[in-house]
Amino acid sequence: MAIVKMKKFSLYFLEKDKETVLNALQAFGGLEFNGFEKYTTNIREDNELLNTLDKLKCLELDSQSAIFDQNLNKLRYCLDILKPYATKKSIFKTLIDDKIEIEYIKLVEYMKNNNWEKIYDDLKKIDSRIAELDSEYLRCETEIDIAKYWRNLEGNIKNYNKLKYSTCFLGSISKQFETEVLTKFEQDFEYSFIDLINSTQKESYFLIIIYNDFKNEALEFLKQRGFNFQTFNYDCSINECINRLEKDKKDILVEKNKLKKSIEKYSNSYLELQYAYEYFNSNKEKSHLFQKFMRSDFVVISQGYLESDNVVNLEKCLSNIKNFDFYLDIEEISDEDVLDVPVKLSNGCISSPFESVVEMYSYPIYSEVDPSPVISIFFIVFFGMMLADAGYGILMLLISIFLYTKSKTKEKRDSYRLFIFAGISTTIWGVLYGAYFGDFLVRYFNINVPVLLDVNKDIMKIFLIAIAFGFVHLVVGLIMKAIVYFKNGKIIDILYDVLPWMMILGGVIMFALKDIVIFITPQISGIIIVLGIIILLFTQGREAETLVGKIGGGVYGVYGISSYLGDIISYSRLLALGLASGFIANAFNIMGGLIPFPFNIVITPILLIPLHLFNLGINALGTYVHSSRLQYLEFFGKFYSGGGRKFTPFKYTDEYIRIKK
After folding, report:
1. Strands 326-331, 342-343: parallel, antiparallel or unpaired by DSSP?
2. Are both 455 and 336 inside the same structural domain?
3. Which residue of 371, 390, 440, 521 has the smallest Cβ count within 10 Å?
4. What Å distances lie between residue 184 and 166, 170, 212, 222, CA to CA?
5. Residue 430 in contact with residue 449, Cβ under 8 Å?
6. What pLDDT is recorded for position 600?
7. SS3 sequence of 548-588
8. Is 358 within the bounds of a domain?
9. Residue 654 and residue 630 share a domain
10. How far is CA 74 from CA 69, 131, 134, 274, in A?
11. How far is Cα 329 from Cα 537, in angstroms, rounded to an integer?
12. Cβ atoms of 352 and 372 closer than 8 Å
């Protein structure tokens, strides 16, 4: 169970060498730097440390760092604009993580002739113009939406505003006031003219011309009824205006399409921009690292963690820097630093793919054990039992092997290796169940494959196998808990927290085997179970200060038996998901068999292939989730707390391009 052994380092060097040092250490890629925050807080009682820190200063971000951030923002802007026009990666290349690799020295040389800033200026100008056109297009649409209700208004709009003795009102009012407004202006206001220009289900649109002597009274009347006044600043008729706006919209779209085509010409520069982005991003990481350093007048102090096996390589790296003076101090990890130490997992070819499963839950702290080797066994078995189809297993195995051989990164290869093991397990369980794409071989080729576990007849047997796996899984979890206690020197806790549960579970197993093993009697298993319960009753409340607390803690500890019962029953999902994937496959096969001859020769394969691929995909996803769940809740709950921090060394970034030393 391999948590890589770490060392703590402190590195001292002259401030004039900081750029050279960080260049070398970024290429080295094996150090994680820590800040000095924990030394600058809660140290008032340590006068010696306070006096020392008073003589030191934290390094701050320089102007160069701000330039890197600014350049990265510009490059993100360019990449986002060009992304729709850039050549898309094929699904296959995405699956194998086919990133371009370049040496850092060559990248630096390449950046001397990189014209990304001109590309940015050009794209910024084009994008700004497109934004202006979008705004203009929206204005045209808005004006058309307003003007379309006034199409029946005749004449030049400007003339309505030139009346000498009268005033013209254009506007709309709620439909419920339409009749009242018409009646009011026709009967009560002399020398007035009112025309219903348009009417909808909710609004009525009026042209009102009122003699100036009645203007204020008319305004008051209209305002009280929520009249919405409308103003047009056109020097033409409404219809002419709408036609002009429609023409403007077309012209805007034409210009916008031309601008988009001009953007497309820059898509060939997408890789050039990615190079620039990775260059500045790596330099930004280096520049921001200064905040974790402290300095005196001339010396820079840094600290952090590295792998124990990398100490010699670090010394060689520093020694190879010309005209460079430094002091390197390597320390063992103390008990005080355990919670702060970053964790790196290192396992063999079988266990390493399952480090990602652990990471999704939480990394272990440095003093814990790595559960990857143990969960790898159970994960593989559980995955196969829940998918349980030899056809799906072989298909998954072949695809995973192919992608594994083509992948270039360790992370991708580990992912596909996980599914290789899962495919092998799925194939084995499928053979046991006699499932090859469900009942495909039997239904279409009349091939009677051997069946060791018949899902139609042996349901109880499969259920008991699932429960047995769960029982073993929980027992192994308790063993892991004992290992963690032993590693941390908590021997007495093994007797109090592990032994009684092992006795209870062991007694249950003995009771279950009483008819198989001759010398086991119900009395023996009962005594063992009772002894385990008594130990729980007297030990689980040991940390409470009061007698009532101790009794309550003991009773609650015994009540934990119900939790174990629920955990064991939870493993019945191993049966349920296996049946589900098989029944769905059989249903698809029945659907294919309903197509009459001779059409079935062509249509049935076309139908069954995507249906079985869908069944494989959806059930493989569900199986992965439930296999992980059994590890996280039932298994980890017995011994694993997590809360560790992944080891993230200072190195080149690789968001778009993979930079090599």
Report:
1. unpaired
2. no
3. 521
4. 17, 16, 16, 10
5. no
6. 83
7. HHHHHHHHHHHHHHHHHHHHHHHCCHHHHHHHHHHHHHHHH
8. yes
9. no
10. 9, 17, 22, 12
11. 51
12. yes
Of 186, 218, 233, the position where a domain reaches its end is 233
- Point out which residues pair with 229 in neighbouring strands: 171
Distance CA 22, CA 286 (A): 7
Domain presence at residue 495: yes
Q: Which of residues 233, 261, 285 is at a domain's end?
A: 233
> Cα 436–442–446 angle (5° rounding)?
140
Q: Within this chain, do residues 429 and 490 fall inside the same structural domain, yes or no?
A: yes
Q: Is the pLDDT assigned to residue 331 strictly greater than 70?
A: yes
pLDDT digits (tens, 9 = 90+) for 271-317: 899 999 999 999 999 888 888 888 887 888 889 999 999 999 999 99
User: CA torsion, points 624, 627, 630, 632, in degrees to nearest 10?
Assistant: -50
Mapping DSSP onto H, E and C, the string for 581-630 reads: HHHHHHHHHHHHHCCCCCCHHHHHHHHHHHHHHHHHHHHHHHHHHHHHHH
208 is in which domain, residue-wise? Answer: 157-233
Q: Which string of b and e fits 556-573 if b means at least 16 CB within 10 Å?
A: ebbeebeebeebbebbeb
Q: Identify whether residues 569 and 660 lie together within a single domain.
A: no
Nearest 5°: phi and psi at 220? Answer: -60, -45
CATH code for the domain of 184: 3.30.70.100
pLDDT at residue number 120: 94
Question: Long-range pairs for 608-614 at CB < 8 Å and ≥24 separation?
Answer: 608/437, 608/440, 612/391, 612/392, 612/437, 612/585, 612/588
Of 297, 254, 222, 217, residue with least CA distance to 56: 297
Q: Which residues contact 22 (CB under 8 A, 6 or more apart)?
A: 286, 289
Q: How far apart are CA 378 and CA 374, in angstroms?
A: 7
Q: Is the pLDDT of residue 200 over 60?
A: yes
460 and 376 share one domain: yes
* Tokens (6 digits) for 175: 């439909």
Q: What does the alpha-carbon distance between residue 429 and residue 247 come to, in Å, rounded to a whole number?
A: 69
- With pLDDT > 90 as the criterion, what percentage of the chain qualifies? 48
* 31-49 residue pLDDT tens: 999 877 666 555 555 555 5
Q: Is the residue at 254 inside a domain?
A: no
Q: In angstroms, what is the C-alpha Rg of the chain?
A: 38
Do residues 398 and 351 share a domain? no
Give pLDDT, residue 135.
95
**Does residue 152 lie in a domain region?**
no
The Cβ of residue 184 has, within 10 Å, a number of other Cβ atoms equal to 17
Strands 342-343 and 645-646: parallel
Residues 6+ apart with CB under 8 A from 421: 350, 353, 376, 380
Q: Is the dihedral of CA 405, 408, 414, 415 positive or negative?
A: negative
pLDDT at 541: 80
Q: Record the tokens describing residue 640, joined without a space.
A: 């694993």
Q: Rounded to two decimals, what is the model's pTM? A: 0.81
Residue 207's pLDDT is what?
A: 92
C-alpha closest to that of 357 among 345, 341, 383, 375: 375
As given in the structure block, the two tokens for residue 347 are: 């396992």
Cis omega before residue 500 (within 30°)? no
User: Do 161 and 214 sit in the same domain of this protein?
Assistant: yes
Based on the domain organization, do 304 and 411 belong to the same domain?
A: no
